[in-house]
Amino acid sequence: MAKRPANRPASVYALAGIRLFNGVTGLLAPSLLIRRLDPDHEPSPAAVYAFRLFGIRTILLGIALLTHDGARLRQDLREGVLIHGSDTATAAMLGIRGQVPPRTAALTTLISATNTVLAATGQDAGNRQRK
Questions:
Q1: Distance between CA atoms of 121 and 25, rounded to whole angstroms?
Q2: C-beta separation of 115 from 76 below 8 A
Q3: What is the pLDDT of residue 89?
């Protein structure tokens, strides 16, 4: 008999969707993302490589949110808070240091902060369901 999928909070589905979209874009169209960060230069091979690594990592993280349940899903969400919190801090620092255009820094910081909140919200909702 097939296992019934776990009931997940909407925030988990939202985070999974964002991760899958960004991951596929990073893997298949890294130049598109790189040009948003550095519109004045042609993407370097190292940047393309890094975005492809980021892409596959992000796809796997998104799939995990849709396939794991129970303690494993709660662990994925706890790790997500750290992952996306780190992404948020990095995006903010790039903006503060003037290493990316201000609009790009604000947008990437906002996206990463949203992901952090979604991971935390999913974790909280999962903890409430468990009780």
A1: 25
A2: no
A3: 98
Query: H helices within 6-69, ranges in order?
Result: 10-28, 30-37, 45-67
CB hemisphere CA count around 127 (13 angstroms) = 10
Instruction: Please name which of 124, 109, 121, 126 lies closest in space to residue 11, comparing C-alpha atoms.
Output: 121
Q: Which residue in the block uniquely carries the two structure tokens 């396939």?
A: 67
Q: Return the structure tokens found at 52.
A: 């492809």
Domain boundaries, the chain: 10-130
pTM over 0.70: yes
Tell me, what DSSP letter sits at residue 100?
S
For residue 3, the 8-state DSSP code is P
Q: Between the CA of residue 104 and those of 5, 22, 63, 92, what are the distances in Å?
A: 37, 15, 27, 10
Indicate if the pLDDT at residue 127 is higher than 90.
no
Q: What is the pLDDT of residues 14-46, one digit of tens each?
A: 999 999 999 999 999 999 999 888 888 899 999
